[in-house]
Amino acid sequence: MPWTPERSVINQTLQFGLETTPGTNVPANKQIQCFAVTFGPMADVAEFSATGRKYPSIVIENSEWVEGTLSGSLDYNGIVYALAGVSGAPTISAHGASSTAKDWLFVPPLTGSVQPQTYTIEQGENNAFGNAIYNHKVNYGLISEFSYKGDRKAGYTVGGKVLAQQLQRAITMTATPTAVAIQPSAGKHFNFYLDPTSAALGTTQLLKVLSVDYAFTGLYGMFFPMNRANLGWQAHVDLNPGCIIKLLLEADAIGMTPLTNLQAGSTQFLRVQGQGLIIDNLQTVTFGGGATGGTFTLSYKGLTTAPITYSAALTAATVNTAFQLLSTVSTNCTVTGSAGGPYIFTFSGPLASDMSTVGANNINLTGGTPTLTSVAQAYATFQHDLAVKVSKPNPFSDKDGVFAEEWEFAVVEDATWGAAQKFLITTLLTAL
């Protein structure tokens, strides 16, 4: 007897395709593994009752569309798909000296239309046992709201609202999509900083943050022109968004400082920064300041090399030999680069994801004002910078026994900074 599997939640997969023209179908060739989208078909229906009759006899569908919710973990890779919807296209550049890690900068505009990335979104069971009759998709998938929240124990999650054109059922999902690797964050990854100027962003760490709750809402609305060729909405329009962030702090002297900021109406600059695992364990040692000679040492995991004589002719092979003599290194690192530097340290084997850094020590370098710098690894990073004003204090509360105060901040435009908020994501992804 043939067996037909029932539709189960656990087997649902999610695939995104980047639309070039909003609403025009494209293959959904990226499998998004960190998020779930729950779709809800919506309809605008008119009911008609004959005069003197108690019940309608005719029901006409006027419009049809889809609304959905996005949920999942705050993932250092997947987050760029959500941010491209609410912030528009990012600027992508190399992360420092890394040849593989990229910095994605998202800056939601202060004025003018946002050009969001829209998606063809497919959902269903894209496997040998799946039943295509259960699969569905939407075009013009538009992420119109984005939020995140977290604490040390529960970790960090994201949320959002998705708007889309009408649901298309019983579709064949795009075959062999490329899976976007999951790179989840954890509560222990996050630091918070609050400073009085944008130039000082990231200087003063808040050491007693208990939780954070951010929401960027109401960015887009649906445009329903009268055209019988379209069952649903045809385009979107910008709306006046809301944007707030809440911090729950221990109500000590530092935790109550926002009350002073509230009374003064002053703008503060907040940084929420998550630093995950190493994504590029390539490190660089560079000589500068006119160094021509003398000696230096390298250290790693508590051990230090013998003094190495520097010159413009010093080869990477010589540095490699000296560095590999350390028992904490051995053959698990290779040094390359031009004579005289910079020297590039590429770790492998058991050290490929080791978080230890290479120490470069100026013992007696000569010539000019010699400098010796070491550029460390690239980490998966979520960095959110915001200009904020305190908009609402809340009653004191008990957070796991800690006497706490939650402050609500409005995200505001700052003319000097030229922005209200910026997102910087460091990832190995080179494109959506």
At a glance:
The protein has 432 residues and is mainly beta.
Helix and strand composition category: mainly beta
- The proportion of strand residues reads over 45%
**Percent of residues in helical segments?**
under 10%
Distance between the termini: 44 Å
Number of helices: 3
Secondary structure tally: strands: 30
Q: Judging from the principal axes of the Cα atoms, what is the shape?
A: globular
Largest sheet: 20 strands, mixed
> Which ranges are low-confidence, i.e. pLDDT below 50, for 5 or more consecutive residues?
none
Mean pLDDT over all positions: 94
Q: Which value, in Å, is the CA radius of gyration? A: 27 Å
Structure description:
The protein has 432 residues and is mainly β. Helices cover 6% and strands 47% of the residues. It has helices at 79-87, 257-264, 316-324, and strands at 13-18, 30-32, 35-48, 58-73, 91-94, 102-106, 119-124, 136-151, 155-164, 168-169, 178-180, 190-195, 205-206, 209-217, 220-223, 235-238, 242-250, 268-280, 282-288, 295-300, 303-304, 308-309, 333-337, 343-347, 359-362, 371-375, 378-393, 397-399, 402-411, 421-427. The radius of gyration is 27 Å and the shape is globular.
